[in-house]
């Protein structure tokens, strides 16, 4: 486990397993049941995956969860990017670990999480903000 973000009753967990990136979400009161769980491998070489963000390339995977939640995971060798959408997303997010959280504005229902070393997170976070 690299880190986690708490959004009200939603818990977003990011982790690595060898050369793979993982994302799991649980809901308070039901921690044993995952509402979303995705695992994706780093792209092989420089020819696979998308290079839409710094320190790429990235492979992409997404899934729908319970209660109208949705998450996507962009997996790279040096960084991970998670986008989490929930009808109950809050500006009062709590997080821990080697990650940065881009909190939603008042009209948004999504949060972005950037995982990696500090310098990498700064570059990726800046690119995500410029794409918004």
Description:
- The protein is mainly beta and 132 residues long.
- Helices cover 11% and strands 46% of the residues.
- It has one helix and ten strands; from the N terminus they run E-E-E-E-E-E-E-E-E-E-H.
- It has one helix at 118-131; strands at residues 3-7, 10-17, 20-27, 36-41, 59-64, 70-75, 79-85, 94-97, 99-102, 110-116.
- Strands 4-3-2-1-8 form a five-stranded antiparallel β-sheet, with no helix packed on it.
- It starts with a strand and ends with a helix.
- The model has no long low-confidence stretch (mean pLDDT 87).
What's the quick description here?
The chain is mainly beta and about 130 residues long. The chain has one helix at about 120-130; strands spanning about 5, 10-15, 20-25, 35-40, 60-65, 70-75, 80-85, 95, 100, 110-115. The longest helix has 14 residues, at about 120-130.
Biggest sheet statistics:
5 strands, antiparallel
Strand content: over 45%
SSE string: EEEEEEEEEEH
User: Mean pLDDT score, rounded?
Assistant: 87
Rg estimate, integer Å: 14 Å
- The portion of residues assigned to helices is 10-25%
Please tally the β strands and state the result.
10
The CA-CA distance between the termini, in Å, is: 28 Å
Poorly predicted runs: none
- In one word, what is the shape? globular
Number of helices: 1
Please list the strands of the largest sheet in the order they lie side by side.
4-3-2-1-8
Query: Class by helix and strand content?
Result: mainly beta
């Amino acid at each position: 486990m690299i880190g986690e973000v708490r959004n009200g009753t939603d818990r977003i967990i990011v982790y690595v397993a060898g050369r793979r990136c993982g994302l799991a979400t649980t809901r308070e009161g039901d921690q044993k049941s995952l509402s979303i769980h995705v695992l994706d491998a780093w792209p092989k070489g420089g020819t696979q995956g998308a290079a839409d963000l710094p320190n790429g390339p990235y492979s992409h995977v997404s899934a729908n969860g319970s209660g109208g939640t949705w998450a996507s995971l962009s997996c790279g060798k040096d960084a991970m990017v998670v986008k989490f959408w929930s009808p109950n997303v809050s500006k009062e997010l709590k997080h821990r670990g080697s990650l940065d959280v881009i909190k939603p504005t008042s009209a948004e229902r999504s949060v972005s999480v950037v995982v990696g070393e500090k310098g990498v997170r700064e570059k990726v976070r800046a690119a995500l903000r410029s794409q918004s």
